[in-house]
Amino acid sequence: MPALEIQSLRKRYGRHEVVHGVSLGVEEGAVYGLVGPNGSGKTTTLSCALGLLRPTSGTVSVLGESPRRLHRLGGRLAVVFDTSIAVRDLTVRQNLRYLARLNGKRDLRDEDELLGQVGLTALADARASSLSLGQRKRLAIAGALLARPELLVLDEPLSGLDTLGVRQVLALMRGLRDEGVTLLLSSHRLHEMQEVVTHVGVLLGGELRVDGPLDEVLGRATGRHRVRATPLERAREIAARTDGVELLDSARTDELRLRLAPDGAPRLARALVEEGCELFALEREEESLQTVFEGLVDAHAAAATNFEATS
Ligand SMILES: Nc1ncnc2c1ncn2[C@@H]1O[C@H](COP(=O)(O)OP(=O)(O)OP(=O)(O)O)[C@@H](O)[C@H]1O
């Protein structure tokens, strides 16, 4: 069973529907990035999933519970929606102790270990009011990690951060991923999300346009490669008779495009070199999340234009 599952979620504000039948699943141990531009419905989707908003229709299950029964999950679920929750007049350490008291007698994580994990050890005695936005975000994440959650949901963990702050939060996400915490993150920062997510869902205008493992979304699973070698014609002949290699059409005359089986790359490289070709490059052809996204936006705009033209 997925850690979090959303089925056919719709949300209307008055007569205006802003989430149009979104279905997605976050597998245990995954880092799922819900990405999309401002206003695409990320926060609304997460809010419905977490019982903060009542969906117009659709079903949600979070660690096997419905959004109305999330209190039963106790510390298994943690949510960071707002980074301003720290008590400003308390120090970083006092904030964590305060949250620990609110958590009751549960088996909580050691505060020094947590401070180390989120990179705030040196600021343990600084007042929360003196922290930068990135430091406040990391304090909020530390608070969310106190009760050792299995699933951590973060709305826009990167917004408003400078480059260093982004790097620190991404490093923290990677550490959590390696510990096996399931993460659901929303963000419009595609480039950065690509560095940390294992799965991605692209929301556009309230519709989930793409959903799946990052490798598949980026076309990494397709096995497409480019080869630059001379003489190119001989390289083409060699490629054509090498096992696990399929020649694809290429618009360029100075390279080959191929689909390679998983063990095809070393086999082809060896064959090319052994048969006297100079091999300059053999690289995987893949897209970035940004280019995938731009393609979707173009398709969305074209569909909207067609709709306007025909209605
Ligand atoms: N309370 C509300 N009443 C009416 N419309 C709303 C309300 N909250 C959100 N919306 C609208 O719903 C749509 C989706 O908003 P949402 O905040 O979910 O998007 P988002 O992808 O999280 O955007 P952002 O990146 O800006 O946070 C937007 O068009 C927004 O204007």
From TrEMBL:
It holds the Pfam family ABC_tran. Its EC number is 3.6.3.-. SUPFAM superfamilies: P-loop containing nucleoside triphosphate hydrolases (SSF52540). SMART domains: AAA (SM00382). Keywords: ATP-binding, Hydrolase, Nucleotide-binding, Transport. InterPro entries: AAA+_ATPase, ABC_transporter-like_ATP-bd, ABC_transporter-like_CS, P-loop_NTPase. Residues 4-230 form the ABC transporter domain. One of its GO terms (molecular function) is ATP hydrolysis activity. Transmembrane segments: none annotated. Belongs to the ABC transporter superfamily. This is Putative ABC transporter ATP-binding protein YxlF. It comes from Rohdeia mirabilis. The gene is yxlF_1.
